[in-house]
Design a protein that fits this description.
Blueprint: H1 4-25, H2 34-40, E1 46-50, H3 58-64, E2 68-72, H4 76-85, E3 90-92, E4 105-111, H5 119-132, E5 133-144, E6 158-161, E7 164-167, H6 173-180, E8 185-197, E9 201-212
The structure holds S-adenosylmethionine.
S-adenosylmethionine (SAM) binds near residues 8 and 11.
């Protein structure tokens, strides 16, 4: 699964196939730092929801807070659902690995989407994310961290979710800072929380808020 196409293709098929049940079943508590992130953003700012899924809850909440929202997702099935769930936002079915914007967004929000990339794709996409941010803009990143320090994080990266194989990898705080700090992102806040959901079980949730300086 080292090849770019393989991972993207595998995850697209998996998310297309689970989209309808995910939309019905998925109810999540709002992440603790979501409101903190929103308060940093300018009024009516332009926000990219990266891997926006069904648009619920986050694209919808961003719209309700008065922001202009573009959601992108690899899965065209997820995008169709998101367009119905949040008609006030714009959605596009593209992979974040093909993100191609130039200093456009006041904020980029990524909840549990970047963990679907392997380290090489992650690093390439990180550059595209930073390129898409205006100077002074903010980046919200939420994904799983490892359970054990020093564990081999490239083991067991193909997970089974609702009968579908998909790529998903935890990232340590050290890896995340090594990727984003040299690109000019300054860490404003970090929070680690053990969460349990019916959909995913127990997770070591790591949330980062960065500013592009
Ligand atoms: C766990 S869901 C999270 C959805 C939403 N962000 C949330 O927090 O509720 C992961 C989402 O990331 C999307 N995704 C996976 N790989 C992607 C990629 N390369 N580009 C864009 N979206 C991707 C999936 O299609 C799926 O909708």
């Amino acid at each position: 699964m080292k090849d770019k196409l393989d991972i993207i293709k595998l995850n697209k098929k998996a998310w297309d196939n689970v989209a309808k049940t995910y939309n019905k079943e998925f109810h999540e508590e709002i992440h603790a730092l979501f409101n903190y992130f929103c308060e940093l953003l300018p009024k009516e700012g332009y926000i990219l929801d990266l891997g926006s899924g069904t648009g619920l809850p986050y694209s919808k909440l961003l719209i309700e807070k008065g922001f202009n929202v573009l959601g992108i997702d690899l899965s065209s099935e997820m995008i169709k659902i998101a367009q119905k769930n949040v008609p006030e936002a714009n959605f596009k079915d593209i992979s974040m690995t093909d993100l191609n914007y130039n200093e456009e967004f006041d904020g980029i929000f990524s909840s549990y989407s970047l963990l679907h990339l392997n380290p090489q794709l992650f690093k390439e996409t990180a550059k595209r994310i930073v390129q898409s941010l205006k100077k002074g803009a903010f980046f919200y990143l939420c994904l799983n961290g490892p359970w054990i320090d020093g564990a081999d994080l490239d083991n067991d990266v193909i997970i089974k979710f609702k009968g579908e194989n998909m790529y998903s990898r935890p990232y340590s705080k050290e890896e995340i800072l090594n990727i984003f700090s040299p690109l000019g992102l300054k860490l404003l806040k970090f929070e680690k929380e053990i969460i349990t959901s019916e959909t995913w079980g127990k997770e070591n949730m790591n949330t980062y808020i960065f500013k592009f300086e």
